């Protein structure tokens, strides 16, 4: 091939390089690449949250005009964008967990977790606590946030088909399918905020993590801030997660 092309966030490795002192010839192993995925899922979550917010505005406009067909279309748009955003942040967290795990190695209790079929969000929360030496207060907050995000992801990926009682949606003063309550712009914004808060806290507090994870955090910190437009110390509503 004529060359290798990489994008930001990719790592390049040449597994071996050999130089023959007699002939002066150089040979090397095939170039290897790897890429992070969590930031791409965050990018998708950002974009779809913005779509959900725009759809919410359309919902309120259609309600104000008492236009039933426009209201139905706007509700569906908000639902799809919100569901995509919430699933995207769950995928971002899972991809981040995998990236850190590849660098820090398996948790001592990973085999027991698999045997007991420990819930995914609990595994991730406990693993992050172990790697980053997170204190009990922050660990409890992280596990609570992950629990909510993964619950919503589960409802999107494994939906039931049973009938459910309609739920009142105050902003349009109507009873609606529960999916229009769960997957709405408000929840997409909260899920994105929670995910960004967790990741920022990890990147800011990697000093007690293994050296390989420290290097990963340093390498990804500015990329994260460029992606989100945030800076260290900037709180997000309703409050930033407490320091480790």
Percent strand equals: 5-15%
- Sheet with most strands: strand arrangement: 1-4
Count of discrete structural domains: 1
Outline the low-pLDDT stretches: 231-244
Main beta-sheet annotation: 2 strands, antiparallel
Summarize the structure.
The protein is mainly α. The protein is built from 8 helices and 6 strands; from the N terminus they run ββββαααααββααα.
Layout of strands and helices, then pairs:
Layout: E1 10-13, E2 17-19, E3 26-28, E4 32-35, H1 38-65, H2 68-104, H3 110-116, H4 120-132, H5 136-157, E5 167-169, E6 174-176, H6 179-182, H7 185-204, H8 211-228
Antiparallel strand pairs: 1-4, 2-3, 5-6
Would you give an account of this structure?
With 244 residues, the protein is mainly α. Helix content is 61%, strand content 8%. The chain has a two-stranded antiparallel sheet. Helix 4 runs antiparallel to helix 5 (136-157) and helix 7 crosses helix 8 (211-228).
């Amino acid at each position: 091939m004529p060359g290798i092309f990489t994008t930001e966030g990719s790592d390049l490795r040449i597994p071996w390089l050999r130089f023959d002192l007699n002939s002066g010839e150089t040979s090397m192993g095939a170039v290897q690449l790897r890429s992070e995925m969590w930031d791409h899922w965050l990018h998708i979550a950002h974009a779809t949250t913005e779509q959900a917010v725009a759809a919410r505005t359309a919902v309120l406009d259609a309600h104000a005009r008492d236009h039933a067909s426009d209201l139905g279309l706007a509700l569906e748009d908000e639902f799809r964008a919100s569901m995509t955003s919430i699933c995207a942040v769950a995928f971002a967290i899972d991809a981040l967990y995998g990236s850190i795990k590849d660098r820090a190695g398996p948790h001592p209790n990973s085999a027991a977790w698999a045997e007991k079929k420990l819930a995914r969000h609990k595994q991730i929360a406990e693993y992050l606590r172990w790697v980053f030496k997170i204190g009990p207060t922050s660990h409890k907050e992280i596990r609570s946030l992950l629990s909510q995000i993964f619950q919503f992801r589960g409802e999107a990926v494994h939906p039931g088909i049973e009938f459910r009682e309609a739920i009142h949606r105050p902003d349009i003063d109507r009873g609606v399918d529960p999916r229009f309550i769960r997957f709405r712009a408000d929840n997409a914004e909260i899920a994105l905020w929670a995910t960004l808060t967790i990741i920022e806290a990890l990147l800011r507090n990697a000093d007690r993590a293994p050296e390989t994870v420290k290097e990963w955090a340093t390498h990804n910190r500015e990329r994260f801030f460029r992606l989100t437009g945030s800076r260290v110390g900037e709180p997000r509503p309703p409050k930033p997660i407490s320091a480790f």
